[in-house]
């Protein structure tokens, strides 16, 4: 199984190689107004949110506001949002997991696959061509690292592998938690282009960042603050 922090399936979930078809008329994401719960307690108040194909949402707010918590909940890794729907189904469901790619701030990679094998494995698991994942890896400067093992890669390089896999899959919803933080200057520009391309191809994305890297894309914004 791929690491749960890269691809939304829960660790015990089945590989979504044959996902049920989702209705393209449904929004990629719907969240009703309500509290964001942490350990059963309200942390922040979420406004109603509908994210459709092609939209980029910049999620920001102070440390501890709940940005990572919200993304983890949408990825199905923990409870936290009541009534949310991804591709029409609840976060963590097979349909939602099949529609969602998720990259945490320190995405783990399996230690028994080199970077290139991981990209091929991820594409195969999702019944997708590996070409887009490898092409993205190239634009992020990964070509010379494809034969390297995760334990021999820097933190930023590992993050590039995870981002190449997630964005290259071309899933309806992509969740990226502070994806620019560990990247070099060239890779940050390449990542911005990749996010733009994913949106132009019909993907919806939520990206957390404390900076203004997304400004050229004129994204929607959502500010979380502790209630
Ligand atoms: N499982 C948990 N149990 C209790 N509290 C938690 C749990 N997970 C997170 N928290 C708390 O919930 C709050 C939100 O954390 P979260 O990591 O979502 O914030 P964030 O907005 O992503 O912050 P940052 O900008 O620092 O990354 C923090 O106060 C954190 O300590």
UniProtKB/TrEMBL annotation:
Keywords: ATP-binding, Nucleotide-binding, Transport. Pfam families: ABC_tran. Gene3D superfamilies: P-loop containing nucleotide triphosphate hydrolases (3.40.50.300). Residues 26-227 form the ABC transporter domain. InterPro entries: AAA+_ATPase, ABC_transporter-like_ATP-bd, ABC_Transporter_VariousFunc, P-loop_NTPase. It comes from the Bacteria. One of its GO terms (molecular function) is ATP hydrolysis activity. Residues 1-25 are annotated as: Disordered. PROSITE patterns: ABC_TRANSPORTER_2. This is ABC transporter domain-containing protein. It comes from Deinococcus indicus.
